[in-house]
Amino acid sequence: KNMPARFLLPLIDQKAASSEEVMVQLQELGSRLSRLRLARGIRQEEAAVRAGISRRTVVTIEQGSPSVAIG
Fold this sequence. Notes:
The protein has three helices and no strands. Helix 2 (44-51) crosses helix 3. The two termini are 23 Å apart. The protein is an all-alpha fold and 71 residues long. The protein has helices at 19-39, 44-51, 55-62.
């Protein structure tokens, strides 16, 4: 079953006042994604295949790095 998007939201607030706020939001998003993945017993490799991205990108997203661009 797919996780409803509301569990991933709020995503990054495009009106964030500072880059520090954005960094906090990115880390919270990455942490949330990691917790949800682990709760479902999904390895990073499997999550990467399902998402059509590399395992390294999954790691980077879960770490909250601002260097990831998706889309």
